[in-house]
Protein backbone atom coordinates (compact mmCIF):
# COMPACT_ATOMS: atom_id res chain seq x y z
CA UNK A 1 0.00 0.00 0.00
CA UNK A 2 1.24 3.44 -0.85
CA UNK A 3 1.75 6.06 1.81
CA UNK A 4 -0.19 9.28 1.87
CA UNK A 5 1.46 12.35 0.41
CA UNK A 6 3.31 14.48 2.90
CA UNK A 7 2.69 18.24 3.31
CA UNK A 8 6.03 19.15 1.69
CA UNK A 9 5.55 17.09 -1.51
CA UNK A 10 4.85 18.84 -4.77
CA UNK A 11 2.52 18.08 -7.67
CA UNK A 12 5.34 16.33 -9.52
CA UNK A 13 5.72 13.91 -6.62
CA UNK A 14 1.97 13.19 -6.65
CA UNK A 15 2.03 12.47 -10.39
CA UNK A 16 5.01 10.11 -9.87
CA UNK A 17 3.06 8.26 -7.11
CA UNK A 18 0.08 7.95 -9.43
CA UNK A 19 2.16 6.48 -12.28
CA UNK A 20 3.77 3.96 -9.88
CA UNK A 21 0.31 2.91 -8.65
CA UNK A 22 -1.03 2.43 -12.18
CA UNK A 23 2.12 0.52 -13.27
CA UNK A 24 1.78 -1.85 -10.31
CA UNK A 25 -1.80 -2.69 -11.32
CA UNK A 26 -2.97 -2.88 -7.71
CA UNK A 27 -6.68 -2.89 -6.92
CA UNK A 28 -8.01 0.48 -5.80
CA UNK A 29 -9.21 0.87 -2.23
CA UNK A 30 -12.56 2.22 -3.44
CA UNK A 31 -14.84 1.27 -6.27
CA UNK A 32 -16.47 4.00 -8.34
CA UNK A 33 -20.12 3.34 -9.15
CA UNK A 34 -21.90 5.43 -11.74
CA UNK A 35 -25.67 5.59 -11.62
CA UNK A 36 -27.61 5.83 -14.86
CA UNK A 37 -29.90 8.61 -15.97
CA UNK A 38 -33.16 8.91 -14.14
CA UNK A 39 -35.14 9.85 -17.21
CA UNK A 40 -33.66 7.60 -19.90
CA UNK A 41 -33.20 3.90 -20.52
CA UNK A 42 -30.35 1.64 -19.43
CA UNK A 43 -27.08 3.25 -20.45
CA UNK A 44 -25.07 0.66 -18.49
CA UNK A 45 -27.03 -2.45 -19.39
CA UNK A 46 -23.83 -4.54 -19.58
CA UNK A 47 -23.34 -4.33 -15.80
CA UNK A 48 -25.59 -6.24 -13.41
CA UNK A 49 -27.82 -4.06 -11.21
CA UNK A 50 -26.53 -3.20 -7.77
CA UNK A 51 -27.85 -5.39 -5.00
CA UNK A 52 -28.97 -3.89 -1.75
CA UNK A 53 -26.91 -5.35 1.09
CA UNK A 54 -28.65 -4.95 4.43
CA UNK A 55 -28.01 -6.34 7.85
CA UNK A 56 -30.92 -8.44 9.02
CA UNK A 57 -31.33 -9.10 12.72
CA UNK A 58 -33.21 -12.28 13.60
CA UNK A 59 -34.59 -12.77 17.08
CA UNK A 60 -35.48 -16.24 18.27
CA UNK A 61 -38.60 -15.33 20.22
CA UNK A 62 -40.24 -13.15 17.56
CA UNK A 63 -41.92 -14.33 14.36
CA UNK A 64 -40.53 -13.30 10.97
CA UNK A 65 -43.63 -11.31 10.00
CA UNK A 66 -45.25 -8.66 12.17
CA UNK A 67 -48.69 -9.55 13.50
CA UNK A 68 -51.60 -8.60 11.28
CA UNK A 69 -53.52 -5.55 12.37
CA UNK A 70 -56.96 -6.64 13.45
CA UNK A 71 -59.46 -3.95 14.37
CA UNK A 72 -60.85 -4.13 17.86
CA UNK A 73 -64.49 -5.08 18.19
CA UNK A 74 -66.83 -2.09 18.02
CA UNK A 75 -67.82 -0.65 21.35
CA UNK A 76 -71.48 -0.57 22.13
CA UNK A 77 -72.87 2.59 23.63
CA UNK A 78 -74.66 2.18 26.91
CA UNK A 79 -78.24 3.34 26.66
CA UNK A 80 -79.41 6.08 28.95
CA UNK A 81 -81.94 4.97 31.58
CA UNK A 82 -84.91 6.59 29.81
CA UNK A 83 -83.97 5.59 26.27
CA UNK A 84 -83.30 2.08 25.05
CA UNK A 85 -81.44 1.25 21.86
CA UNK A 86 -83.52 -0.79 19.41
CA UNK A 87 -81.66 -3.86 18.21
CA UNK A 88 -83.51 -4.39 14.95
CA UNK A 89 -83.71 -0.76 13.74
CA UNK A 90 -82.29 -0.05 10.30
CA UNK A 91 -79.45 2.52 10.46
CA UNK A 92 -80.55 4.17 7.21
CA UNK A 93 -84.07 4.63 8.56
CA UNK A 94 -82.70 6.11 11.76
CA UNK A 95 -80.48 8.51 9.79
CA UNK A 96 -83.38 9.49 7.53
CA UNK A 97 -85.50 10.27 10.57
CA UNK A 98 -82.89 12.51 12.24
CA UNK A 99 -81.16 14.04 9.21
CA UNK A 100 -82.35 17.38 7.92
CA UNK A 101 -81.73 18.65 4.42
CA UNK A 102 -80.15 22.07 3.99
CA UNK A 103 -83.42 23.48 2.68
CA UNK A 104 -85.19 22.43 5.88
CA UNK A 105 -82.55 24.17 7.95
CA UNK A 106 -82.69 27.35 5.88
CA UNK A 107 -86.48 27.58 6.06
CA UNK A 108 -86.41 27.48 9.87
CA UNK A 109 -84.21 30.57 10.20
CA UNK A 110 -86.03 33.35 12.03
CA UNK A 111 -84.54 36.82 11.80
CA UNK A 112 -84.52 39.06 14.83
CA UNK A 113 -86.78 42.12 14.69
CA UNK A 114 -84.50 45.17 14.60
CA UNK A 115 -87.14 47.81 13.93
CA UNK A 116 -87.34 48.90 17.57
CA UNK A 117 -83.58 48.97 18.22
CA UNK A 118 -82.05 52.44 18.25
CA UNK A 119 -79.03 52.92 16.04
CA UNK A 120 -76.40 55.29 17.45
CA UNK A 121 -74.31 56.81 14.71
CA UNK A 122 -71.04 58.50 15.64
CA UNK A 123 -71.33 62.24 16.22
CA UNK A 124 -69.28 64.21 13.69
CA UNK A 125 -66.78 66.56 15.30
CA UNK A 126 -64.05 68.88 14.17
CA UNK A 127 -61.23 66.97 15.93
CA UNK A 128 -59.52 63.94 14.51
CA UNK A 129 -59.65 61.84 17.67
CA UNK A 130 -62.27 61.57 20.41
CA UNK A 131 -61.79 63.40 23.68
CA UNK A 132 -59.81 61.58 26.36
CA UNK A 133 -61.64 60.64 29.55
CA UNK A 134 -59.51 61.66 32.55
CA UNK A 135 -60.17 60.23 35.98
CA UNK A 136 -59.51 62.29 39.06
CA UNK A 137 -56.94 61.17 41.62
CA UNK A 138 -59.60 60.83 44.31
CA UNK A 139 -61.61 58.21 42.45
CA UNK A 140 -58.48 56.48 41.18
CA UNK A 141 -56.98 55.88 44.62
CA UNK A 142 -60.11 54.49 46.26
CA UNK A 143 -60.78 50.81 45.96
CA UNK A 144 -64.16 49.20 45.51
CA UNK A 145 -64.19 48.11 49.15
CA UNK A 146 -64.03 50.84 51.77
CA UNK A 147 -62.38 48.60 54.36
CA UNK A 148 -58.91 48.84 55.88
CA UNK A 149 -56.04 50.20 53.86
CA UNK A 150 -52.59 48.67 53.90
CA UNK A 151 -49.80 50.17 55.99
CA UNK A 152 -48.01 51.24 52.83
CA UNK A 153 -51.12 53.05 51.55
CA UNK A 154 -51.57 54.74 54.93
CA UNK A 155 -47.97 56.02 54.91
CA UNK A 156 -48.25 57.31 51.35
CA UNK A 157 -51.49 59.12 52.22
CA UNK A 158 -49.84 60.67 55.29
CA UNK A 159 -46.89 61.89 53.17
CA UNK A 160 -49.21 63.43 50.60
CA UNK A 161 -51.12 65.27 53.33
CA UNK A 162 -47.84 66.49 54.85
CA UNK A 163 -46.59 67.71 51.46
CA UNK A 164 -49.85 69.54 50.82
CA UNK A 165 -49.61 71.45 54.13
CA UNK A 166 -46.05 72.61 53.53
CA UNK A 167 -43.00 72.46 55.79
CA UNK A 168 -43.56 72.79 59.52
CA UNK A 169 -42.08 75.63 61.62
CA UNK A 170 -39.45 73.37 63.20
CA UNK A 171 -38.15 72.27 59.81
CA UNK A 172 -37.47 75.84 58.60
CA UNK A 173 -33.95 76.84 59.65
CA UNK A 174 -32.88 80.39 58.93
CA UNK A 175 -29.70 80.68 56.95
CA UNK A 176 -27.70 83.35 58.76
CA UNK A 177 -24.45 82.84 56.94
CA UNK A 178 -23.25 84.91 53.99
CA UNK A 179 -24.45 83.78 50.57
CA UNK A 180 -21.96 81.90 48.51
TrEMBL record:
<feature type="compositionally biased region" description="Pro residues">
    <location>
        <begin position="64"/>
        <end position="74"/>
    </location>
</feature>
<feature type="region of interest" description="Disordered">
    <location>
        <begin position="34"/>
        <end position="96"/>
    </location>
</feature>
<dbReference type="GO" id="GO:0006366">
    <property type="term" value="P:transcription by RNA polymerase II"/>
</dbReference>
<protein>
    <submittedName>
        <fullName>RPAP1 isoform 5</fullName>
    </submittedName>
</protein>
<dbReference type="InterPro" id="IPR039913">
    <property type="entry name" value="RPAP1/Rba50"/>
</dbReference>
